[in-house]
Amino acid sequence: MSETVKTLTFLWKDISSGAAGCPALYRTDGGYVVQGVRLTEGERTQLRQLADGEDAVFVPANVLDRLTGADV
User: Fold this and answer.
1) What's the number of CA atoms in the CB half-sphere (13 Å) around residue 23?
2) Percent of the chain residues past pLDDT 70, beyond the cut
3) What is 59-70 written as a DSSP string?
4) What is the C-alpha separation between 35 and 65, in angstroms, rounded?
């Protein structure tokens, strides 16, 4: 099975992250990729229909609010 590698373009990161690189937002063909802290197992059990190969991360609102022009 061939896997296509997406080219990611860095947009911005959490304003509170200091020198660390996450949480962050990237643009790619047809969408976005978020980099963040993995959810705990208890949090993951609350997700609906999490398929094999899928995962979820926490991203502070200020990382995504820029997409809508909301104040950060």
Assistant:
1) 17
2) 86
3) --HHHHHHHHT-
4) 15
